[in-house]
Amino acid sequence: MMPLFLLIAASSLLFALASPATATETREFILSNGMKVLLVEAPKAPVVTVQVWYKVGSRNEVMGRAGLSHMLEHMMFKGTVKYPKGTFSRLIRKNGGIDNAFTSQDFTAYFENLAADRVELALEMEADRMQGLVLDMKELTTEREVVKEERRLRTEDDPQGALVEALFAQAYLSHPYHWPVIGWFNDLDAMTLDDLQQHYDTYYSPNNATLIVVGDIKADSLLPAIKQLFEPIPRGPEPRPIATMEPEQKGERRFLLKRDAQVAFVMMGYRVPNFSSEDSYALDILDSILSHGKSSRLYQSLVYEQKSALAVGAEYSLLQSDPGLFYFYALVSPNQKPELVEKSLNREIKRLQTDLPTELELQRAKNQVEASHIFEQDSNFRRAMLLGQAESVGAGWQKIDQFVERIRAVTAKDIQRVARQYLTEDNRTVGTLIPVPPKQPGTPSSAARQGKP
Amino acid sequence: MPTARPQTILALVMGCCAWLWAAGPSLAAEIAPTKFTTANGITVLVLEQHVLPIVEVHALIKAGSAQDPPEKAGLANLVASLLDEGTTTRTSKQLAEQIDFIGGTLEAKASEDFTTASIRALKKDADLGFTLLADMLQRPAFDKQEFNRIRTQLLGEMASNNDDPGHIAMKAFNQLVFHGHPYRWPVNGTEETLSKISLADVQSFYGREYSPSRVILIIVGDVTLHQAAALVQTHFGTWKKISAPTRNQKNSLPIERKTVQLIEKDLTQSTIVIGHGGLARAHPDFYSVTVMNYILGAGGFSSRLMDSIRDKQGLAYGIMSHFDARLMPGSFWVNLQTKTETTNQAITGVLTEIKSIRDQPVSDQELAEAKSFLAGSFPLRFDSTAKLAQVLAQVEFYGLGLEYFTQYPKWIDRVTKEDVQRVAKQYLDPQRYALVVVGNLAKAKVNR
Q: Which residues have CB under 8 Å from A200's CB, separation 6+?
């Protein structure tokens, strides 16, 4: 019923990469203006997904303007000269399609899912707003309020969301992963049309974008149409690379978040490398052994045996532009102490560092990766999303094809080694949400009463 | 799986959507499954899909929380939650290890009208998939320790749910709208009712409700009809039939006047739910209501509520209207979150739109756009093997007939402007409704 669910459904694939072994090939084309085009012919149903990925996210923002990329994403639906306000989604929908967009730390992406015979409509509209966006003050004023409502929903009024935000702010001191994708209230208030225009001019250019089409298409016959629509868009400036890197962490950081909540929540984030390190594959398998399925270590230990957590997990995505966090989370069972839950998490980490995982566990993790790579191909959208993410974070879409092979090569010793190297006390940030009674005493008092018609 | 990972984490790290995520591409334009009934009474639908080596087996059991005794709400859900927690031949952990080892997924959950248990596996593991699903459904152990553990876990999740204002609001709303009706309680029950459920209750619910004659079994994927029929016979052929209890249809009593429930919680936004009773899925007006509701508030950025509340007034990130059509008449509601200060403005805005779609006919353009979306996007609803299996099960359960897949666009297309206004007048009521607000009440000052 709520958007969050759906967002998650889509983002879960970030942690289960796939290589399309039985699938048709990904074909790459570079247009004369530098835009990369990836086409996949998947004729199983007469539908298609069109996605445009821009290499810009909250990591490309500066202090004082946190949330600018996401705000621009919202403004991208406010119209161009050719397709004025309110027409974009309406026209896609009228043609039986669905459109949306999402922003992360590393990228901003737009998509349309629709019948294959309407593919050119989506392409035409995306080409149009790659250069013709009209930024209007009145629209910004209203949309700013919408985004602030989004922030209230996701962070202010969501205890776990608030803890995640604080964890990143503590784990990254200088790198832009410090601030949230949605931005801070004051920064949202401070944003001007000029800020948005500059961000748009800098990052929304063909040479900073990847177009991906997956579905019932013929690459050879679609390419001319793509060229015709996108090649007239002039090449833009090469965005400056992000200079600020996060220095090595020297010692554990710890914080508490005290607020009205029903249950405690514990998070531990370890600084780890991204795709550019060979260790990323072992870290991915490590994640699987810890948290994929009900037979995984964390579930069996904390939820099943000790019953100290209602939910527990670990998350790692190697497809990040800059080194990210390998993080653990646990939703603490009522009447259980967060300190004990943290100890249990530490015990599981310690176990990985001292004893090799069993052959069975290792094989299970690899089987899960291989099966999920087949399951991923069930959806054009997911395939396109994987390609888009790999390309946008700088890994290159070919990384997807190599993934299963690399995973197969991971050994039990590799897992122990990366556990010892990265999951160390000095390299982590620990945040705990401590529920406190609500400000106004006399909690959830509810009184029904009959009103006048 | 008993619980999802906290959703917010990924959402925040991953980023934010402009608006809600919607269905992806479809699997097939033509959906023509083969249907048959086994000797012991299972209704089986098989849809061959040979593009990928995947098999999805989805069982729908015609018993849900609507069959819970009122003082033991949450029973059907507790039974479903225990299905994968051990059988007479496998422990909870062994089940988990077997499904995880093949990289498959196994799920069981109850809803108001029915319970589903499903498995997804690679083709090479189809036999094991059937084995595990059949074991869960026919030989659940209902071990005392697992029972206690899962019940405690469910109680803990209820506490955690109270951190979600949307959940609190819907729970209150359902109690107002479904007064004295089986849809009144949350599927997982309440702290009070769940605590009253005993292991004997679980066993007797299972014994009474889980019979092959009440099961719809959907098989979608890379198996032939012949293989599927053989697998069903091998794994489900000996399941003993019992006589099924008869069901009584029940209508909820309409809300007689505006009813307001305000729930205090220290928040920056008010979570608002406004609505009343709705209609049953099999009602002939369903398609006219679908078109009307699309225009009102289910049509994303094309809807009137989105246009007014979000785009023009900037009052909310998301707003949507819903008709939850079930076996018995369900409910209609609009939900949104807005900052505390604009609570009354948003409520007024919603009521204005509800009134307006009753009072004036929709425009030709609105009607045409709604119909062209609903018909045109129909294939996008089956964006994965799993979704296709779910839809097939529900089409069978609600008795929509397999022509649903070819006729749906026609049923939508014949809806007229007059139909839209007629059903708006009949199924929307801007005077007699339930209003729930969760938030900072002192600041929100909700108008009664």
A: A72, A133, A135
